[in-house]
Q: What sequence folds into this?
């Protein structure tokens, strides 16, 4: 059984007991424990069920490479699935639940299912088994797979994450990733040059695994050296240090994301939970260490089978042993350290099988001296299935697994050699080379990721470069730190050699199967990828079926996918594939490592953007007033505009109708502040506007307004609005609400990139002005009353300010610009005042307007009023494929101008085609409202057997003024078909019959606006 | 995430301050041009693996458009330069040639 | 006029730093040739400040001048004086291609004050604010999280942030969030 020992545990504080729960059971650990070490201390060998087969799974590793121990962490609005027990620091009250089992971890129905179904669940099982017959997919296979597959449960969608998150931008000359001895040394060397250094370590503690493995640096034990070096770095102004911060990805041009976990280890202390560091580094040093590889033997996934070095970590760091009788299997010397450490801690090593005929070096000698039974050229044939290790069968390595000796044991430590963590090196294009001696891929320093200047910007340090011995690691790290500093423009002083001492090791030998010629029965029980449940037999099957590319095999078998990203499985899987294909491993190559190295929270990615700052809302100066007065908000781009103003008990429909009638009969106020306002000024401004608008703007007289259309170079309508000429060389262009920034950018683009010699300046003054449309028969009266109250103001009479004219002056004491323009067909003024005075002006209008029946109106009323008049709306009648000619706006296309943006496109044969759908009015025969977006159907069917379409509805409303539905639409040959009734099938199954009519439904002569 | 130096304000802007604007040095064809010329102007774009000349706007910054000479394969940036030019200046061509001898892009060559 | 109200109407927040609405200030967009002697003279006469170098802000007795683009300056003057200053600029520059326009009401302005001010801004803007990297008199246009913004640092070590009026409330809430009392980063302060 796994248990806590009385001694050891350099990271735990035995004086501080911590209570936590696992699957509802209360358990105890110590401060400094990880959830993983605390579970082991409580003999919780079984931590989860596997992905496909629901096999019992236990801890394999001690760090972020752990594939099995994924748990649901926290409760309620802090619940989070798929958290690794090995990277979860224990805290008081921690609540974890295991995943992927039903009804319970110990008794899982899926395990039985998978025994029955397992022959279907081989590589490519989705493709092979579940395609035919089709109906079975929906009713049998999919429900079965959904029930049994998948990892953690998604959090309750009704609950919002209770925590907060943030980002932080940071710039460094040298970013060192990894706070092991190599990272510390690299940081120290780089920092000595004066470079600005950021050092990140994903764990809470520093030093990596060297304090566990032993050896001395500069005459100090590793742990003491780590402490000394940390103190030195902390004292330097040019060094920033962060633990609990994982570099999750390396991206183009030296961009790196750092994932800082601020409160995961101590929830409830306030402040953000995670901080995402958005780092830009001139140089990146990856001191990410190496990961031990599992050995491929049957039953290597039984709980209690663990990586040898991880077992040593549990012992040395947390004082925990996973077993009392341990078998060690290895192909290298490092696992002897585990055997020796366990033995010295009083754990029985029942056997050490070394696959190498020649055995190990100094460490092997020491193990023998201690009385450990070491057998060379031997292998594990099989670990007996179950919820924990009970029996281990030993055989010759160089055989098929016969002549087994079965021994009793409760844990197995395995070591298949070490692979450098190359993920961060590879994220941005760093290439790898195959190292035959170490049987691993390591970074090729000649083919590093390159940055904006074409130079390498990533350098590896320590065992991340390949070497494993302490002396080589420290030398490499010092060189890497110096190289990075120099590349960042900070040449380091000469780098002194780092003095180390260590035990020498015999060479490892690659072992890809244990035993070497394992039969199919064994291979079917030999796991490569624990997390995705991929076995040796799956990869071999893929190879037999013709999968030669490693990338294809990855997807076919799911090897190394998902959160695992091939940390444990990669090399073993490649080796099996290469062997099956009769190729060399370097020829097979590796899969692509993608960020993040280890999953990061969605909250961290979103940062502060949630709640009221999820996205910027643009508010006009009168926003608060609207909100207090019943505004039903409509998003228009990032703006919020009142759709209508609801009175108590009123429906939206009723409110809109009330506004529509009142504006036509009395007085309506619209907050039009969102309309874009661009000032265009300069000697060439007229020429410029003639190019931008389809009609002529240069001939407009100062004091006058003109409606204009803008097209893209493609000829399609892009915006419209009223242009006012302010003086000889100044125009003010109104754009649509959504168009201000876009049209401003459009103008600047043409001015900066095409006509840069034209003397034109543009300024966006949209937000400088609050603009109110004062609309209705009483519009003039209310403004004149304001002037009377103020003792004077601008003359707003018909004679002094005619239709399509503007002027500056004062209204009611406010400095204002008044435009006599109308988008409703009513007598209408648009008054612009300083935005800071917008609310005061609005208040004055509401107060003065009382006697004239004033009511504010929203965007829906605006739409209905304009539709009654047959005015088009950009975004309704246009959709990026509509040209002015389609809308009967020929009058707004200048014939005199040689050129305007879009003119040439409108001459293309497809544009100049009478078959294009054209704008008409539509009136339902029964007075009902046409469904929005409905298509009209004509004779015949298309190639898909669907009725041919001949038109569509672009705007449709109930008009309270006309008491019937009115609509506009684009119809083939529409203007020539006046009076014809055409069919619009609705989604409700009903056929709506509508008559083609003139689009102007109300006041065709335009008398109302011209009073 | 790219960094480009805005030639107008000198900021080494990360991509979130920028807006990509497609191919550089398009020659506008207006009324009177042939259908083929106009079609190519509107729709035909270079998509090279290697040296590319493109337009960017420093949208969350000084707002100016500029040109960038960049390698689409390695993301190496050879130069950024003014938008007020119909072809890359000789100095920019030389910078590209120094890194990618024998390069060509549309009618421009090293 | 007494009717004028700034977007946050003087609101403030104290956390890691003090964030405060700066109230109404006069702002003028002046587009023209920075090298023009006439322009330099009139800018100096209305603000007391020189035309700034690239990405700088200069201060004078009657206002300040910020470098916006190679052909645009932002003049900061007294809110009540804006119309008069615009008139002066227009008159002086009548013979030159230029554009002077009042944008005072189009903006929201905030001060960010305190030891951790650099860190608070570095949470939302992709700018290197390490000591010595951004100094008094520097002026930067960039992005504050999801909106365009400009900011500068004054001699007293106070940051001033400007954005569009319509997103003033977003900016205030953003800075408030970044200044949460328990969110200190601790690298610059």
A:
């Amino acid at each position: 059984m796994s248990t806590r020992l009385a001694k050891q545990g350099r990271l735990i504080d035995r004086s501080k007991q911590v209570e936590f729960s696992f699957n509802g059971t209360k358990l105890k650990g110590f401060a400094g424990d990880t959830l993983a070490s605390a579970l082991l201390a409580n003999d919780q060998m079984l931590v989860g069920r596997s992905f496909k087969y629901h096999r019992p799974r236990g801890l394999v590793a001690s760090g972020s490479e752990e594939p099995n121990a994924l748990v649901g962490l926290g409760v309620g609005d802090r619940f989070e699935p798929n958290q690794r027990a090995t990277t979860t620091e224990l805290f008081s009250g921690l609540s974890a639940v295991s995943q992927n089992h039903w009804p319970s971890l110990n008794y899982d129905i899926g395990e039985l299912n998978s025994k029955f179904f397992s022959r279907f669940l081989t590589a490519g099982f989705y493709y092979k088994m579940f395609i035919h017959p089709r109906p079975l997919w929906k009713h049998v296979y999919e429900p079965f797979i959904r029930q049994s597959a998948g990892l953690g449960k998604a959090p309750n969608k009704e609950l919002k994450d209770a925590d907060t998150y943030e980002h932080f931008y940071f710039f460094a000359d040298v970013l060192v990733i990894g706070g092991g001895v190599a990272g510390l040394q690299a940081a120290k060397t780089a920092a000595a040059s004066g470079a600005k250094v950021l050092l990140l370590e994903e764990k809470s503690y520093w030093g990596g695994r060297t304090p566990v493995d032993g050896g001395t640096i500069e005459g100090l034990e590793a742990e003491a050296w780590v402490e000394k070096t940390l103190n030195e770095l902390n004292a330097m102004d040019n060094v920033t240090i962060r633990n609990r911060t994982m570099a999750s990805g390396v991206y183009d041009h030296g961009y790196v994301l750092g994932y800082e976990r601020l409160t995961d280890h101590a929830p409830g202390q306030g402040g953000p939970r995670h901080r995402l560091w958005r780092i830009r580094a001139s140089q990146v040093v990856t001191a990410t260490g190496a990961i031990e590889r599992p050995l491929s033997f049957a039953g290597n996934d039984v709980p209690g089978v663990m990586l040898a070095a991880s077992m040593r970590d549990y012992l040395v760091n947390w004082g925990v042993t996973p077993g009392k009788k341990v078998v060690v299997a290895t192909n290298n010397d490092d696992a002897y350290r585990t055997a020796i450490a366990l033995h010295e801690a009083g754990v029985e090593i029942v056997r050490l099988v070394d696959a190498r005929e020649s055995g190990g070096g100094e460490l092997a000698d020491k193990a023998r001296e201690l009385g450990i039974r070491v057998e060379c050229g031997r292998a594990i044939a099989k670990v007996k299935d179950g919820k924990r290790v009970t029996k281990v069968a030993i055989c010759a390595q160089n055989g098929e697994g016969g002549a087994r000796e079965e021994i009793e044991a409760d844990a197995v430590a395995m070591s298949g050699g070490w692979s450098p963590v190359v993920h961060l090196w590879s994220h941005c294009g760093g290439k790898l080379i195959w190292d035959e001696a170490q049987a691993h891929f390591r970074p090729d320093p000649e083919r590093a990721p390159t940055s904006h200047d074409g130079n390498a910007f990533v350098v590896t340090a320590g065992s991340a470069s390949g070497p494993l011995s302490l002396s080589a690691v420290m030398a490499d790290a010092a060189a890497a730190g110096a190289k990075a500093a120099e590349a960042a423009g900070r040449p380091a002083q000469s780098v002194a050699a780092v003095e180390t001492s260590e035990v020498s090791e015999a060479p490892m030998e690659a072992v890809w199967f244990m035993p070497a010629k394992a039969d199919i029965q064994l291979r079917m029980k030999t796991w490569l990828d624990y997390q995705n449940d991929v076995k040796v037999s799956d990869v071999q099957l893929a190879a037999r079926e013709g999968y030669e590319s490693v990338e294809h095999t990855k997807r076919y078998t799911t090897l190394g996918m998902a959160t695992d990203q091939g940390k444990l499985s990669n090399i073993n899987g490649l080796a099996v594939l290469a062997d099956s294909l009769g190729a060399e491993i370097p020829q097979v190559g590796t899969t692509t490592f993608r960020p993040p190295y280890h999953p990061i929270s969605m909250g961290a990615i979103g940062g502060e953007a949630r709640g009221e700052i999820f996205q910027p809302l643009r508010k006009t100066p009168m926003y608060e007033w609207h909100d207090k007065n019943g505004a039903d908000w409509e998003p228009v781009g990032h703006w919020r505009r009142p759709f209508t103003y609801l009175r108590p008990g009123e429906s939206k429909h009723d409110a809109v109708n009330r506004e529509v009638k009142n504006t036509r009969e009395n007085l309506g106020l619209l907050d039009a502040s969102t309309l874009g306002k661009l000032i265009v000024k300069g000697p060439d401004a007229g020429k410029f506007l003639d190019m931008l608008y389809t009609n002529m703007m240069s001939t407009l007289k100062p004091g006058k307004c003109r409606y204009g259309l803008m097209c893209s170079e493609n000829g399609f309508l892009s915006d419209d609005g009223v242009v006012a000429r302010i003086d000889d060389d100044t125009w003010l262009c109104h754009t649509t609400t959504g168009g201000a920034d876009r049209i401003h950018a459009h103008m600047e683009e043409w001015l900066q990139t095409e006509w840069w010699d034209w003397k034109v300046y543009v300024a966006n003054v949209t937000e400088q002005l609050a603009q109110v449309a004062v609309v209705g028969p009483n519009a003039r009266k209310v403004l004149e009353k304001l002037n009377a109250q103020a003792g004077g103001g601008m003359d707003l009479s018909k004679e002094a300010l005619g239709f399509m004219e503007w002027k500056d002056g004062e209204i009611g004491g406010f400095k204002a610009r008044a435009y006599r323009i109308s988008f409703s067909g009513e007598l209408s003024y648009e008054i612009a005042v300083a935005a800071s005075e917008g609310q005061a002006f609005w208040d004055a209008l509401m107060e003065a307007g009382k006697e004239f029946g004033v009511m504010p109106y929203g965007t829906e009323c605006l739409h209905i009023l304009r539709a009654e008049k047959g005015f088009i709306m950009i975004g309704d009648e246009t959709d990026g494929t509509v040209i002015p000619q389609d809308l009967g706006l020929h009058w707004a296309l200048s014939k005199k101008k040689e050129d305007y943006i879009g003119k040439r496109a409108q001459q293309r044969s497809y544009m100049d085609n009478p078959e294009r759908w054209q704008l008409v009015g539509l009136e339902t025969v029964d007075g009902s409202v046409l469904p929005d977006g409905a298509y009209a159907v004509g004779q015949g069917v298309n190639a898909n057997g669907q009725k041919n379409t001949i038109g569509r509805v672009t705007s449709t409303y109930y008009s309270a003024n006309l008491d019937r539905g009115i609509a506009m639409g684009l119809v083939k040959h529409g203007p020539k078909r006046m009076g014809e009734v055409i069919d619009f099938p609705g989604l409700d199954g009903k056929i709506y019959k509508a008559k083609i009519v003139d689009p102007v439904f109300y006041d065709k002569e335009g008398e109302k606006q011209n009073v | 995430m790219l960094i480009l130096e805005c030639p107008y304000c000198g900021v080494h802007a990360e991509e979130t301050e920028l807006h990509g604007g497609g191919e550089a040095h398009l020659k506008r064809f207006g009324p009177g041009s042939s259908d083929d010329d106009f079609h190519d102007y509107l729709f035909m774009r270079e998509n090279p693996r290697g040296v590319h000349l493109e337009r960017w706007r420093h949208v969350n910054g000084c707002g100016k458009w500029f040109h960038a000479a960049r390698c689409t394969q390695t993301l190496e940036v050879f130069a950024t330069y003014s938008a007020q030019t119909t072809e890359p200046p000789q100095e920019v061509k030389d910078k590209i040639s120094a890194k990618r001898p024998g390069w060509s892009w549309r009618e421009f060559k090293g | 006029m007494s009717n004028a109200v700034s977007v946050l109407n003087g609101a403030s927040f104290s956390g890691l730093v003090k964030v405060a609405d700066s109230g109404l200030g006069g702002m003028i967009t002046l587009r023209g040739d920075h090298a023009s002697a006439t322009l330099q003279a009139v800018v100096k006469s209305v603000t007391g400040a020189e035309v700034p170098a690239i990405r700088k802000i200069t201060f004078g007795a009657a206002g300040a001048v910020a470098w916006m683009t190679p052909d645009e300056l932002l003049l900061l003057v007294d809110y009540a004086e804006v119309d008069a200053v615009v008139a002066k600029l227009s008159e002086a520059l009548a013979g030159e291609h230029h554009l002077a326009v009042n944008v005072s009401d189009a903006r929201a302005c905030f001060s960010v004050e305190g030891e951790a001010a650099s860190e608070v801004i570095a949470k939302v803007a992709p700018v290197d604010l390490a000591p010595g990297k951004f100094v008094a008199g520097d002026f930067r246009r960039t992005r504050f999280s999801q909106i365009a913004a400009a900011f500068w640092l004054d001699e007293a070590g106070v940051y001033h942030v400007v954005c569009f009026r319509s997103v003033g409330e977003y900016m205030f809430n953003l800075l408030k969030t970044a200044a949460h009392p328990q969110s200190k980063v601790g690298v610059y302060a």
The longest strand of chain A covers residues 165-177. Chain A has 26 helices and 52 strands. The radius of gyration of chain A is 38 Å. The CA atoms of residues 341 and 492 of chain A lie 40 Å apart.
